[in-house]
Amino acid sequence: MLTVENISKNYGEVKAVQHLSFTCREGEIFGLLGENGAGKTTTFRMIMGLLDAKEGTILLDGKPIDYTKTDQIGFVTEERSLLTKLTVEEQAQFYGILKNMSEKEIETALAFWLKRFHMEEYKTRKIKELSKGNQQKIQFICAVMHQPKLLILDEPFTGLDPINVELLKEAIYDLKKEGCMIIFSSHQMEYIEEFCEKLVILVKGKAILNGYLKDIKKAYGMKRIEIIGNVMKEDFEQVKGITKIKKQQDKWILEIDQEDVVQKVFQAIEGKKISKFEAMEPTLNEIFIEKVGEAK
Asked: Are 24 and 122 found together in one domain?
């Protein structure tokens, strides 16, 4: 288990991370969210032992993270971290040796992942000759080829087309099934909703929301109603508690301020021909915008 307890880090007068705590267990995907400059990268660097926390502790399986533990961590950075003049094979050898893998282990792992990502023919190609999407897949391979206990993914789908996104998703789910602890960061909230059981949202280094995604959504209640049917705006615009009404093609979308408005809307259109009436939880994107806005 990864345990981050009350960590803080300053850069001069700037408080990059303030009293941050969370845990990530084996086979769990944890979301670390925030705007640019919120403290995510600083947190990653402290977890990997590249920066020392001003206060607090970070433990992997109950022990501090030092050079005896870093071989158990993989990291896909948001920026490309590849040596572009090397071939794919040379790049893998370089990272594998840094992770104390033998030549045979590197060769076996590289062959496995290249085949999985349909990239066998790229083994002897230079990194600079690859597309951005293929470079991203090589970056992922280098991060996981040593079978890390903890994997940090910072915008892992950058540059990937939908087909390759699905390939990478399948790989991430398989790593989760094998017990890998995964910290996932992305500005694309649909990926966080799909992957993460727990999450933290940071604003200026401070956690403004922390917990299980299902509990966070439940606490917000139903915030939106979608209706398809033989209805008009006049049918429900007098209902108190509706804060916004809009239409998208054949669908009406009502934003509401509290959950009991759902029943009022249902009663207002009773007797109409309705093919869809759905009360929906807020999306993580909506929660993120609201909470970050409040914090500012």
From this structure: yes
